[in-house]
Amino acid sequence: MNMSQDGMGYMTPERQMIRDAAREFTMKEVLPLANELDGPDGEIPMSLRDKMVEMGYFGITIPTEYGGMGMGVFEYCLVAEQLARGWMSVASIMARAQGGWIKSCMPHELRAKYLPRVVRGEFLNGTALSEPDTGSDLASISCRAVRDGDDWLLTGNKYWCTFADGADYLLIFARTAPPPSAERRGDGISCFLVEKERGSFPRGMTGSPIPKIGYFGWKTFELALDGVRVPKEALLGEEGKAFPMMGRGLETARAHTAARAIGLAQGALEDAIAYAGERRQFGMPIAEYQAIRFKIATMATEVEAARQLMYYVCNEIDLGRRCDKEASMAKYFASEMAERVTSEAMQIFGGAGYTKLFPVERYWRDARLTKIFEGTSEIQQRIIATNLLGKSEVESMIAERAFEKQARKKVGVSA
Description:
The chain is of the alpha+beta class. The protein is built from 12 helices and 10 strands. A hairpin with a 2-residue loop joins strand 9 (280-281) and strand 10 (284-285).
């Protein structure tokens, strides 16, 4: 049964129109560019970003009073899935807009200043969250922020900051106070909005590109901060209280990652079906062979199962219900599924799949990343298990050791 047309009511006529328009946009505008530009030196062109502005894709979740579409996470992920079917990096650049922290942490006058610029594609962000020694354990952030008069000085290192050079501002997470206990290791982390010029870094910051095997179209950076000065107004939200907001934001981020993974798998599935109908071996199309037919049946089933789980999570988020367990399930299942499906598609292509002549190898490379970013598959399993079973003794021991390690560090913070 296709839930998109059943009594659950997820796919309204309006949502179908949004999905179909995004599909048409992707096949006409995104996919040809991806096939041409995907590679270490290729970049998403400004002309495509301008067309995304015309479609409203930088303001899907931004309220209409600021020029946005005023829609929900469901519509956001519908569009992301379709864009990822063409090029995952384009689906990801939407996440550089939407104004999440600006919407939730800034007063109306500042939202009125910034959000219309976000909608117009003029104020896109890069997020500096991970660090060389801090990936999945976000509570162990050691980049620090200290007061200097009316300003803040940011010092430390950040890792995996995609689009850091092209962004108009960076969201930098830094510790403004040491954690009070092992149970509250996330306390004392704050978020700062650091404005910058496109194509450069602010004074006191340097960036080094990290070589990647995929996720092309933009660069990913390691950042070194040496006393980056920002005004007190750069602090977003309450000082030391960014960690709980990170958790709430990750529900949407994981639904978005699930959507991207599904889009990649859908692209690989469609290409494999088309190729199987054209490729002839032993006097007939390979689509006639049961081995290929069963592969495609399994691939299609897994794609649709992931899609329906993603729909459910998006609906729960838009209804304001907590769904951290379900968001982790969607991200975990969809990303694992995407790697399997894209790999099977390459198998159907045979030797041709292991060339640059077809997009399927790009889907496969990018799908592999979805199992890592926004929390690895293992972290998603841990979240799911903790929700079902409670914390294990090992988790408690890890938290205690991390707290002890943090306590031994000299963190220069003001009271």
